[in-house]
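WARN no homologs supplied; continuing
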Amino acid sequence: MALLNVRNWIVGGIFLFAVVGLGSYLFTNPAGLLKQLFIIGITVVAILVIFRFWSNRSQSGRERHAFAKAAKQSKLRAKRRKGQIKAKSHLRNRPLRKRSTAHLTVIEGKKSKKKDRAIF
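OK structure emitted
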């Protein structure tokens, strides 16, 4: 519990320093802050575009086509199952018959005889 409390104080301190730093940067150099945020945004967008382009290139056309076909078949199968469930729902309205309890018997064995087994 004490570790969690210390961790909360550390995270809170980091956020406090970040807010104070951004606030002072905003008051001393607002154009520089906007420029820096713009550059960070462009960098993030460029990385995302490169990653998507690279991930799409790793799949061949056949793989994408096979995946799309499998997804389409899965959707059709799900639609068919919904129709079957609705058709069978009227059969479930009748009460199920009660199952009989199992009658078990105990078979007495030779309890005095010990087995020769190696204990590991």
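Residues 30-58 form the longest helix (29 residues).
OK
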